[in-house]
Amino acid sequence: MPIPLFNSIASWILKKRIHQIELFIKYPNEVQEELLFQLLNKAQSTETGILYGFDTIKNYDTFKAKVPLSDYTSIEDQIEKCRKGRQNIFWPTPIKWFAKSSGTTNSKSKFIPVSTEALEDCHYKAGKDMLALYFINNENSQLLTGKSLRLGGSSELYNDHNSSFGDLSAIIIQNLPLWAELSSTPSNKTSLIAEWETKMKTIVEETIPENVTSLAGVPSWMLVLLQNILKATGKKNIKEVWPNAEVYFHGGVSFIPYRELYENLFPHKDFQFYEIYNASEGFFGIQDKNDSNELLLMLDYGIFYEFIPFDNSDKSSEVIPLSKVVLNVNYAVIITTNAGLWRYQIGDTVQFTCLTPYRFQVTGRTKHHINVFGEELIIDNTEKALAKICAKTKSLVSDYTVAPIFMKEEKQGAHEWIIEFDKIPESISIFTDLLDRALQDENSDYEAKRYKNMTLHKPKINIARKGLFYKWLSKNKKLGGQHKVPRLSNSRDFLNELLKMNS
């Protein structure tokens, strides 16, 4: 079949999905309620279903009253039993895959269950919807006349007991339907290379000759790849390498620090940037309009949503369903999924920008963190790392804050610290190296980004003069109580102000 004809037929098939999307846009709360009871009915004979009496739950209020909120710590024991081969604990169909990610308080890594239903009805369905929404907004697109350059994370699966675990991208790639595999580059074999430096070199060699029309991946990783593409070809921008490239689907971290860099890489006014919002736990949102900063909440992926108003305080707030959210309020997200996560707090916060349909923006995490490069560094990581190396170096830290050094054209990113010591270590260089290693020990995502300086260089540490943090608090009228300079931030606002005062 001629490629342009294939593009026309495939885009027509994908656009048919728009009618189903319009259905949940028109009846969002009804679709969500029906989905909840489908999940409850399917799982009523599982250990979790029997424990909480799923067969007796007839409305949302009963569901909320009977089933407690959960997080990874509260279900870790169940997940470990499932990883060792025990089934029907929280979901009735066999769980064979676990997506490995970091970010928990007590564990270096999380193992998120991935069911067949989650793959088919969530992740793969979302992949088709990305294309459908893009086609409906770009009628003359020739996207399917070429290939999509996909860039996953550390793509290798490991067998453990009776299950497999690894990066979500590895699970998705290994189970891709034939149509998706044929329309993608690099090959599955290359995508699943474990050693990142080797994989990067192979991807460059394999993708340059292809007719790439779209790209998909995390901005920090993709930027490294595209810079290597330019070095290998000697071209000034990516449009000179792949003149038919139309769109970059990005997600995982904020795109704001990267936008200017990518606009320079794709200097064409018609090139599109489309944001997506997915995680190991599920696929949640897709940008559904050109040049938008909002995401459409996808309501028929086997995920039931709840929300908690979030204000960074310890005050408890009432959990509400989607039907009760309002505009411009920060909400922590709770999900119930077709992989057996029940009322699970994913740690992300969102804010709704539109209620008809439900569109939103990702606003951050429920804890201070840095996730500019996909490293998901949380305060628990930095506190534990500092405690270890202060003991080794016989130093004492009284206060600190950390912010990103954003990527530039030919320069990788890093974390910049300013630390006020009560007792300064003999060697800041040794302190820095030990801190870097300790952070890698605490957080596997940070460790991956630090690998051979591919995305992150080692931290930069500034020594604060005595009393600097106190003076900052005084200047900002934050003395007393629980006020303090945020430990971690995705922006440089606090750090730059402190550096200026310190000079």
Q: Topology, pairings included?
A:
Blueprint: H1 3-16, H2 18-26, H3 28-42, H4 47-51, H5 60-66, H6 72-83, E1 97-101, E2 110-114, H7 116-137, E3 147-151, E4 157-160, E5 163-166, H8 168-174, H9 178-182, E6 184-185, H10 188-191, H11 196-207, E7 212-217, H12 219-233, H13 238-241, E8 247-250, H14 259-265, E9 272-279, E10 282-286, E11 295-297, E12 303-309, E13 320-321, E14 330-337, E15 344-355, E16 358-365, E17 369-370, E18 377-378, H15 379-393, E19 396-405, E20 414-423, H16 428-442, H17 444-450, E21 460-463, H18 468-475, H19 493-502
How would you describe this structure to a colleague?
With 503 residues, the protein is an alpha/beta fold. Among the domains are: 3-9 and 117-295, Rossmann fold (3-Layer(aba) Sandwich), CATH 3.40.50; 369-502, 2-Layer Sandwich (GMP Synthetase, Chain A, domain 3). The protein has helices at 3-16, 18-26, 28-42, 47-51, 60-66, 72-83, 116-137, 168-174, 178-182, 188-191, 196-207, 219-233, 238-241, 259-265, 379-393, 428-442, 444-450, 468-475, 493-502, and strands at 97-101, 110-114, 147-151, 157-160, 163-166, 184-185, 212-217, 247-250, 272-279, 282-286, 295-297, 303-309, 320-321, 330-337, 344-355, 358-365, 369-370, 377-378, 396-405, 414-423, 460-463. The strands form 4 sheets. The protein has a 12-stranded mixed β-sheet with strand order 6-3-7-8-9-10-11-16-15-14-12-13, with helices on both faces. Strands 2-1-5-4 form a 4-stranded mixed β-sheet. It is globular, with a radius of gyration of 23 Å.
